[in-house]
Amino acid sequence: MPIQQLPLMKGLGKSPINADYIDQLPVNLLATPKEVLNSSGYLRSFPGISKRSDVNGVSRGVEYNMAQNAVYRVCGGKLYKGESEVGDVAGSGRVSMAHGRTSQAVGVNGQLVEYRYDGTVKTVSNWPADSGFTQYELGSVRDITRLRGRYAWSKDGTDSWFITDLEDESHPDRYSAQYRAESQPDGIIGIGTWRDFIVCFGSSTIEYFSLTGATTAGAALYVAQPSLMVQKGIAGTYCKTPFADSYAFISHPATGAPSVYIIGSGQASPIATASIEKIIRSYTAEELATGIMETLRFDSHELLIIHLPRHVLVYDASSSQNGPQWCVLKTGLYDDVYRAIDFIYEGNQITCGDKLESVTGKLQFDISSQ
Hints:
- It is built from 2 helices and 34 strands.
- The protein is mainly beta.
- It folds into 2 domains: about 1-60 and about 290-370, no CATH class; about 95-235 and about 240-280, Methylamine Dehydrogenase, Chain H, CATH 2.130.10.
- It has a 4-stranded antiparallel β-sheet, with no helix packed on it.
- The longest helix has 8 residues, at about 275-280.
């Protein structure tokens, strides 16, 4: 009897809505390329999650702090270093995080708050009026990052971004703190760093800024690099993440139907399949702006995780040699949205936060319960 091989990486079916052929994506299963039993790969269960600790609230952000060799996580109204509380964080929404040699910074409620390692807390503000230094309209902080000894943040609703002073991180640079991404008249949605560049993400372009090396007081410290500009924008502040030595992002509807892209050599390359684009297209621009992207790596899987209001999508770069490989993550028995978020490697385990309850968890590879 001849052997019949069935494709497991993804199925093929008809949509009950428009009768179009669509990919039937694996649910809570990862495609693993490996020669097993005359097959080129197999499906393995996504690791399960077990409870780790009780915290103050739902997960709002996480970052590995290299200066302290510890994971800093914002849950509810508290900032945690590992499992111990180190500070209070206002608000309840998503936060941006960055760190330096002397402090862990959190962008929250329109402010850049620095939790210094000596226990003090400072908020970035202008120099005293009698100092003689320039007074800036700092406005409201939208997103933060750090590069070469300075924090950088974008001013909400504008195309301006600022850098902190080298000597006192709680104030803007004394002479040249403000810069503009002039190709983004609707404002900078997000900001990040790539290699030695500040990256400003708008709704229709992505601009890169490099250091000028100037040492003269008042001279510009950063200058735009037009050759690296990407003619795509991001859908929301957290719809971008470092991935594969570059950035992955969900594009803004301003540049056409939204999709998922990876930046490379000044160009954006799509990695979404038609079925993934159909899912993304089912969201309004306002819903898409609330999306969150993160990366996760374990057992040679290079995962890009996209948290949307009604879906959690996973792209596996290690299994995508013959085409983009996607899967869907769900929680429970009744098609609920996947609850875990903010994965990070901590110690010798992968920890995560929760979208609904005041707990943290850890991936457990001998179970598959979600």
